[in-house]
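To close the chapter, one final illustration. This time we ask the reader to focus less on the individual chains and more on the assembly as a whole: which components sit near each other, and how the overall shape emerges from the parts.
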Amino acid sequence: MSKKVRVRFAPSPTGGLHLGGVRTVLYNYLFAKQHKGDFVLRIEDTDQSRYIAGAEEYIIDCLKWCGLNPDEGPHVGGDYEPYRQSQRKDFYKEFAEQLVKDGHAYYAFDTPEEIEAMREKQKAEGKHTLHYDHSTRGSMHNSLPLSPKETKEIIDAGTPYVIRIKIHPGEIISFEDMIRGTVEFNTDNVDDKVLLKADGMPTYHLAVVVDDYLMKITHAFRGEEWLPSAPVHILLWKYLGWINDMPKWAHLPLILKPDGNGKLSKRDGDRLGFPVFAMNWTDPKTGELIKGFKELGFLPEAFINLLAVLGWNDGTEQEIYTLDELIEKFSIERVHHAGAKFDYEKAKWFNHEWIKKLPVASWQLTVKNNFINRGLLIEDDNKFNKVLELVKDRCTLLTDFYEQSVFFFVAPEKIDVDSIKPKWNDNKQMFFIELVRAFELIQQWQHDDLENTFKEIAAAHQLKPGELMLPLRIMLVGGKFGPGVFDIASVIGKEETVKRIKYTLGLFV
RNA sequence: GCCGCGUUGGUCAAGAGGUUAAGACGCCUCCCUUUCACGGAGGAAUCACGGGUUCGAGUCCCGUACGUGGUACCA
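The assembled structure is written out below.
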């Protein structure tokens, strides 16, 4: 009987939830759900200097919007509380002390200045590694050469200290990554990482191991930027005596900038005009607002979909997936090894596909609120839905609906008369005057009747409907866009149609 | 610098020794459409380089180049 699958997303609440972060959540979530396991949210807030108010709530809101809700977490509780590392301080200290006792870690009393001096010295000697490691720890200020009694005296005297892991050189640490296969590291290149900071808080390295163990995590998926510190974590699992319970690892490829090179950052979004965060994030310190996919008009279904296939595919030609399909088909082994450049054009294509795929009712409210925010109140839901249905083919973002359909509710402010003037003549003028008269008499204000009336009068004036259609369109919508003219006329109604034609006609005299 | 990871069209990518090297986005052309889209049909465009192994290599091995990540009392 294998253990129940348990995965975790462990963000540091420092503000904003990045695309890559959401993808990590998604892969965790898909894997957990596929295996009928648990998805836990753990807040890695061990760096007090980076505390950002509201960041934790923001992350939870983002997950909620995406529909990737954790089974356990600080907001919902669970069997392994607490889920904030700042509240689990005592656990870490206990295990760090244990490691010291077992000879796998030691106290270090060096000040930052002393460490900096050591690095400078190494640099001056032309050494390549600027590490606190087996080659340098002998000359540093730590408990290694001291007796337990001496050490205790220093600590009791109030000397600030950290606890460092003691890495033995010359060992090969290897492990199986679910995506990359066997990965090897030589401990010659790994330094004596700090496990417990001077303020008593653990570093990520200690905390992640302790919590993954205590929370019975079976599979740990994280960004590729963690790969180099994997040997430290593995050693910790070993030294703590838990190696048989170590989760299986998977290091996810990074999401890169679309142009140039490097990891995608929030700055790139500003620079290139696309969102990087899931939802709007306002930095409480600077007041700076970073735009989110949600507010820019993305559907969560599309956001999830595009993230899922950025670095993963099921080997078929399918590209559009519902969350349930993803849960069924996702496989961590098929995740690409290389980083992927983010392509905003394709992201928008996904959104467009989802707008067309989903029933209007599922996003109608979002668009409605969007209209309200722009000062357009919607009273007639029936008409509103009809309009959305009519224009959805030409909207890639939810925010596009406004421009594509305001004219259904308010007469256009500007009429593009320049597009009709050059070919305007008295005959056309006469045609429209008569059209207005005929429209006013129509009993059944319906698409087909309007079109027939239009064509009959055109024929009577020996005009081709084609040369009349564009002027009519411009009179109704203001420009050269929008759905079929008679669809528009039938929705806005007789009174409004007649009014708009008359208005434009008035511009010619 | 050192260590790790990676490298198929502009982008996302399929491909697990023998294929005309899929597909999608974007771009271009045409059709449909009496606007713009949607839809449909085409098109241009790719295995980083050099050595091996093999009858045969995008696929396996080794180098090189390039990219990327790490190298903190940040995660």
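The mean pLDDT of chain A is 95. The first strand of chain A starts at residue 6 and ends at 9. With these observations in hand, you are ready for the problems at the end of the chapter.
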